Every structure is written in structure tokens, then in C-alpha cells.
């Protein structure tokens, strides 16, 4: 049979065409071929006109996509063959609550069933760290305002929490948002102040490590004696210079040995989550990367802006100003520290007066002031403190 020959030769498309042409008696073999070679599903749909067989292929394709965790594609594929229960499960697996409730409508679930489903989704979204979605489900399908506002507060969607509280004209909910926003403000101020201190310490440590590396490299270049060490002293010398090799690009037996050890240590550092080890060969670049990693993320900036707006709307403009001032000091200092590191990491000198964090902070503020820039879209100009002379 041609099908068998094609199968042995790996000509799967030809094998599928042949098994389809062989008739219904071989339909089970056809489905097995499709399941074993999922890239054939599109061709399988083209070769069948009968609705029942096309639906069987679509459902099998959806099962494959679910197995590959392509849940959104699986959900749509299931809908094409009216397999709505499987479609609902696929939407639920990918956290698409809108898709879940649309399919629930297609299934004509009863009101109490939809409410029960909504409560379950709220719990699932909260566990998955998606309280914003949980809030929308609680409000729209559970009619639970208190729970919805609570979830919005957890998600730090402050403006939405306040909007819903005022929409329902519920004093207790407004007060809940006010208290939570005030608590969050105090926490953020403390976090930014602590972060500011850490930036100062990391920048100072980086400059010290960088200066040490440059000093060691200069010493090795001037002495240039370790290349002619006698064989019986190689072991002792390589040990004493293994750490120094991290601060020079010089080719030597010591530097090669240290390089190999560095790679092993680097791998261990990655496994340990990139911890900075004082005195390690990779400390300098680890400090630079850590300073870069301290930048405010897009999500953090959005949450910060939302909090500032809500605080103003709650009549707490002074609290909002203190939050913005703390965040501004942190963010400018972080950017200045990164610029300082980038300017010195490829330089062969560190100047004590020129290369300081304080100077770079002033330079950054002067440049932004000259261009009329605030350095971030999260800032609210109306909260800027008055200029004191």
C-alpha cells in the first residue's frame, strides 16, 4: 500500500493523502497519523468535507494545542467545532476571563452557575497574582463591590479603586481606599529612602573596586616580572595573582587559571540568583548590573502615578508630594549612578573629584532643568516643591 511506503520514507503529507483516499475504513489510521504529526492538521482539514470528520480533526487539534499549553489558540479551535466545555477550560487555563464568560454564555449556563464560576475565578486570579482581573470579575459578575475594591487595592490600581468607591457612593469603601493609599505612601517613602542609601553604598563600592583594579593593572604593567617566574614558584605565584587577574586583561598562566575559575564562579553566581560577592573577580560588573537593575520598572511607574493621582483626589496632596520627592531622589540617584559607572567602566582612570555620585546627580538635574524635562512621565508637575533661595 502506498500509505505504508510513504510512512516508512517519512513522506507524511503524501501518506495522509493516500490514507484519506483509501476511504472511511482507514479513518482511525488517519486520525492516528494526524495526532502523531500535528503539522498535518491544516492539510487534514482541507482533505475532508464532512462536518463530523472536520470537527473530529479540529477537536484533536485543540487537544494538541492544549497539550502544548497554547491555550488561547486551543480555545478558538475548540469553538470552531462547538466543543465549548473544552474551550471554556482552555480560556480558564490562560486566565482569559472575558473568553470564559463569553463561552459560558454560549453554553447557556444558569445565573447561579456563572456566579459560582466567577467566585472561583476570583480566587484563582488572586492566587496567580492578578488581583486587577479578580476585581473586574468580582464587580461585573459577583456584584461584590467590597471585594472588587479590595482587589483593586491589592493590584495598586488606586484610581480605579477610588472611582468604584465613589460610583457606589459608599463612604466605608472610600475610607478603605484612603487608609490603604496612606499606608502604601508611607511604605513607599521608606522603601525609596532605603533604596537611596543602597545606591550610595553600591556606587561607592563600585568606585573603590574600579580604582583597585586600575591600580593593580598599572602595577602589573610596570613590574612585568611574573612572566619570567621560575617553574618551582609558579604554583605560589599563580595563587597570589589569581585574584589580581580579575583586574587585568594580561595574557598569563595566572590569568588563564583565574579566567577558568571565574567562569565556574560565574555559573555558581547565576544559580544563586546573581548575588554580589565582595572581593570576587566579577564584583565590579555585578555592581554595575545591580545598579541598572534598581531602575523603576514601567509597572512600578504606573503604580506610582496612580497612587499620586489618588492621593490628590483624596485631599492628601502633601502626602503625594512627599512620595514624589522620595521617588524622584531615588530615581535620579539611580540614573546618575549608572551613568557614573558607564563613564568609568571603560576608562583607565577614576578621578576623585569628577567621578562622584553627588556630582553626577547635580549634572543630571541641571541638564533636565535646562531642557524643561522631569525625567519621567510618572511625575506630577503640580506637586513640585517651591524653589528655595
UniProtKB/TrEMBL annotation:
GO cellular component terms listed in the entry, alphabetical order: elongator holoenzyme complex
Give GO terms for biological process: tRNA wobble uridine modification
* Biased composition range(s): Low complexity: 252-264
Q: Which domain of life is it from?
A: Eukaryota
Q: Where in this chain does the record put each ELP1 three-helical bundle domain?
A: 177-328
Locate the compositionally biased regions of type Basic residues.
265-275
Task: Return the annotated region ranges for Disordered.
Answer: 252-279, 368-389
Where is each ELP1 TPR domain found?
Answer: 2-163
Any idea what this protein is called? Answer: Uncharacterized protein
Origin organism is Zea mays (Maize)
Taxonomy-wise, where does this protein's organism fall, top ranks first? Eukaryota, Viridiplantae, Streptophyta, Embryophyta, Tracheophyta
Amino acid at each position: 500500500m502506498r500509505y505504508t511506503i510513504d510512512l516508512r520514507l517519512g513522506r507524511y503529507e503524501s501518506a495522509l493523502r493516500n490514507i484519506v483516499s483509501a476511504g472511511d475504513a482507514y479513518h482511525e489510521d488517519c486520525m492516528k497519523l494526524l495526532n502523531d504529526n500535528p503539522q498535518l492538521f491544516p492539510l487534514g482539514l482541507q482533505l475532508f468535507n464532512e462536518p463530523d470528520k472536520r470537527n473530529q480533526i479540529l477537536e484533536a487539534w485543540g487537544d494538541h494545542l492544549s497539550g502544548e499549553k497554547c491555550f488561547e489558540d486551543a480555545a478558538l479551535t475548540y469553538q470552531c467545532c462547538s466543543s465549548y466545555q473544552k474551550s471554556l477550560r482552555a480560556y480558564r487555563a490562560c486566565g482569559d476571563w472575558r473568553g470564559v464568560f463569553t463561552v459560558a454564555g454560549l453554553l447557556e449556563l444558569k445565573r447561579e452557575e456563572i456566579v459560582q464560576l466567577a467566585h472561583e475565578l476570583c480566587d484563582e486570579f488572586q492566587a496567580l497574582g492578578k488581583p486587577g482581573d479578580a476585581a473586574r470579575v468580582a464587580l461585573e459578575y459577583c456584584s461584590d463591590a467590597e471585594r472588587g475594591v479590595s482587589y483593586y487595592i491589592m493590584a495598586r490600581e488606586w484610581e480605579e479603586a477610588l472611582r468604584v468607591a465613589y460610583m457606589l457612593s459608599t463612604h466605608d469603601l472610600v475610607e478603605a481606599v484612603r487608609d490603604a493609599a496612606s499606608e502604601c505612601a508611607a511604605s513607599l517613602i521608606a522603601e525609596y529612602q532605603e533604596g537611596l542609601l543602597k545606591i550610595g553604598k553600591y556606587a561607592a563600592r563600585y568606585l573603590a573596586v574600579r580604582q583597585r583594579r586600575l591600580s593593580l593593572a598599572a602595577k602589573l604593567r610596570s613590574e612585568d616580572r611574573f612572566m619570567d617566574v621560575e617553574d618551582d614558584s609558579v604554583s605560589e605565584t599563580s595563587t597570589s595573582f589569581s585574584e589580581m587577574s580579575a583586574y587585568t586583561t594580561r595574557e598569563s598562566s595566572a590569568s588563564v587559571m583565574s579566567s577558568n575559575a571565574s567562569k565556574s564562579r560565574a555559573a555558581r553566581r547565576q544559580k544563586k540568583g546573581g548575588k554580589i560577592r565582595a572581593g570576587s573577580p566579577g564584583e565590579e560588573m555585578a555592581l554595575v548590573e545591580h545598579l541598572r537593575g534598581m531602575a523603576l520598572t514601567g509597572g512600578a511607574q504606573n503604580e506610582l502615578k496612580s497612587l499620586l493621582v489618588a492621593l490628590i483626589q483624596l485631599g492628601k496632596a502633601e502626602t503625594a508630594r512627599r512620595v514624589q520627592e522620595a521617588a524622584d531622589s531615588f530615581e535620579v540617584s539611580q540614573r546618575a549612578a549608572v551613568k557614573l559607572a558607564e563613564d568609568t567602566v571603560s576608562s583607565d582612570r577614576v578621578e576623585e573629584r569628577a567621578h562622584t555620585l553627588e556630582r553626577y546627580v547635580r549634572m543630571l538635574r541641571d541638564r533636565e532643568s535646562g531642557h524643561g524635562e522631569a525625567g519621567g512621565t510618572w511625575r506630577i508637575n503640580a506637586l513640585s516643591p517651591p524653589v528655595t533661595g
